[in-house]
Write a structure and sequence with these properties.
35% of the residues lie in helices and 24% in strands. The protein is built from nine helices and ten strands. A hairpin with a 2-residue loop joins strand 9 and strand 10. The relative contact order is 0.17.
Length: 268
């Protein structure tokens, strides 16, 4: 059997809060309580759940931006949290992230060229000319022009800024992109454009997506498989069409029931 691109095994993350009293132990928040899943190369996996279910904690741990209490995150067979610092820095070439807020994640004081080339510059070993060329290629891949390299984030619309964020994630040619609510801050009319772009980039570059979202329609549009997260546990997993049509777990059923549906107008 093919080794998964990403393999998460028994992932646990508990956070210790400040003591409320000298005479009581510090309280703990149990964000993740033993999460396991895998993702094959070229596929997309959605993680869905309500706020506080542990979705963003998974994203931070997969990106090795936080340390797990227990469990492992393996990318291409390497446990990211056990790699020496230099090896982890090099491993980041294979995994990049797209954040929820396309404006907040872009430094307003930097040009688009500097923003997009940032991951490549952090890896070292490339000249400014090469970084500029690769940045122009990444912008072209997301439908923007090389003349946009010299502009600043405030000169673009929300959808264009998210395209810039995706271009930044693409510049190292990663195997995996972790997308944390990538379209929730965008107008509904722009969301489909960005999701279609992500699909086109997957076909062109073979990139895999780990999509963190509360929006079932977004997951259904982009993902081959979905994990439903509830109180730090995966309670149901499967293809979106099957899972959403025949949900077995009460929590999944409750999520589906909470999706707003347009009702036909009642005749006067």
């Amino acid at each position: 059997m093919t080794t998964p691109l990403l393999e998460v095994t028994d992932l646990v993350r508990h956070y210790t809060l400040p003591r409320e009293s000298l005479f009581t132990p510090p309280p703990q928040v149990k964000a993740l309580n033993g999460v396991s899943f895998s993702l094959q190369a070229g596929r997309s996996l959605g993680i869905v759940g309500e706020s506080g279910s542990g979705k963003s904690t998974i994203a931070r741990l997969v990106m090795a931006l936080d340390q797990p209490t227990a469990g492992s995150v393996k990318l291409l067979g390497r446990d990211l949290h056990r790699l020496p610092r230099e090896e982890l820095r090099l491993a980041r070439r294979d995994v990049q992230m797209v954040f929820q807020d396309p404006y907040g994640s872009l430094d307003p004081r930097q040009t688009v060229e500097r923003i997009v080339a940032e991951p490549l510059a952090a890896l070292a070993g490339s000249s400014r000319a090469e970084q500029r060329e690769r940045a122009a290629e990444s912008l072209a891949a997301v439908g923007l022009r090389s003349t946009d390299l010299h502009k600043y984030p405030h000169e673009f619309s929300g959808g264009q800024r998210q395209r810039i964020a995706i271009a930044r994630a693409l510049i190292t040619r990663p195997k995996l992109i972790v997308a944390d609510e990538p379209v929730s801050a965008l107008d509904v009319s722009v969301q489909a454009q960005v999701l279609n772009l992500m699909q086109e980039l997957q076909q062109e570059f073979g990139v895999s997506y780990l999509l963190i979202s509360h929006d079932l329609a977004v997951v259904n549009h982009l993902c081959d498989e979905v994990c439903v997260l509830h109180r730090g546990l995966v309670v149901e997993r499967g293809a979106p069409a099957r899972l959403f049509a025949h949900a077995q777990h009460p929590y999944t059923q409750a999520l589906l029931a909470a999706v707003p549906r347009a009702e036909p107008p009642v005749p006067a």
